[in-house]
Amino acid sequence: MLQSINASKIVALNTYATAGGAARAAMRLNTGLRQAGLDLAAISRETYLPPRYGHNHKSRWLSWLLGCLDILPCKLYPNSQVHNFSSNWMPDGIGRKLRHLTPDLIHLHWIGDGFLRIESLARFEVPIVWTLHDSWPFTGGCHLPGGCRRYQESCGCCPVLGSSRIGDLSR
């Protein structure tokens, strides 16, 4: 499939290089794609990837700070499941790195925790493949909605945020 869209240079984006299930799955997939002969670079917020295979998007302390700042809107909800909701409202600046790497295809994995704003995707001028590791890409906030299906119509009164307000952060 990748060859049918002439993707000879791929950039994989994942918030973390090694922490979490999405990072481990992305690492296994990236390794397999490289072994298949594809030119693949990975961008994450961590510094663990070898320079040949990975690029650190930001310094480690700045990445940690951005993750903390991204959680702030959730902190306004005292009963929230803070680590089950990402607002991704912080500026990301990944576009500059991508222009430098000139990919033919961008492969998104888990981009929560303030790593990449959804609005940034519109600025990418190459095809995007997104491997869904949780529900965030289609709920717009919660990672695992449980039994809630409000995202199918219109969010509000979010159980993940512990909110009873229609106009809450999930809306």
Give the topology:
Blueprint: E1 9-13, H1 21-35, E2 39-44, E3 54-56, H2 60-75, H3 94-101, E4 105-108, E5 128-130, H4 136-139
What can you see in these coordinates?
- This protein is 25% helix and 12% strand.
- It has helices at 21-35, 60-75, 94-101, 136-139, and strands spanning 9-13, 39-44, 54-56, 105-108, 128-130.
- The chain is elongated and about 50 Å long.
- With 171 residues, the chain is α/β, with parallel strands linked by helices.
- The chain has a domain at 2-57 and 92-133: 3-Layer(aba) Sandwich (Rossmann fold).
User: Span between N and C termini?
Assistant: 36 Å
Largest sheet, in brief, is: 5 strands, parallel
Number of helical segments with 4 or more residues: 4
The CATH superfamily label of the domain at 2-57 and 92-133 reads Response regulator
CATH class of the domain at 2-57 and 92-133: Alpha Beta
Radius of gyration equals: 17 Å
Percent helix, as a range, is 25-40%
| Class based on secondary structure composition and strand pairing | alpha/beta
How large a portion of the residues is in β-strands, by DSSP E? 5-15%
CATH architecture identity of the domain at 2-57 and 92-133: 3-Layer(aba) Sandwich
Unreliable spans: 47-57
Taking strands numbered 1, 2, ... along the chain, how are they ordered across the largest sheet? Answer: 3-2-1-4-5
> What is the CATH topology of the domain at 2-57 and 92-133?
Rossmann fold
Care to count the β-strands? 5
Shape: elongated
H/E element sequence: EHEEHHEEH
Average pLDDT score: 78
